[in-house]
Amino acid sequence: xxxxxxxxxxxxxxxxxxxADFEKVVIAAGTVTRVEAFPEARKPAWKVWVDFGPYxxxxxxAQIVALYGPAELVGRQIVGVINFPEKQIxxxxxxxxxxxxxxxxGVVITTLERPVPNGTRMx
Length: 123
Hints:
The protein is of the alpha+beta class. Helix content is 15%, strand content 34%. The model has no long low-confidence stretch (mean pLDDT 92).
């Protein structure tokens, strides 16, 4: 993300939402169980599978290859939005959104400061 775009986003975060709107978003912790290459993707990406405990294992496509390899992702606890509708990405169906922060170097994934049970919702 360019510095101008980042500054614009910080000045204008978008339309306000209600607390009720926020409560509809299921943001949960999960542990990465598997990572595979996704050569069919238009932009470099990994296929990532995550165990969300009571919500089950879900998969996504994530454009995080600039900063992360499979070995440093497997076993890491991440934060995902798990109640978006599935999205077709080429031949792959994404089942959740892996959260992160865009930087000049690439996307930095959202991780936890200390472990929590898989499926724990953000409050």
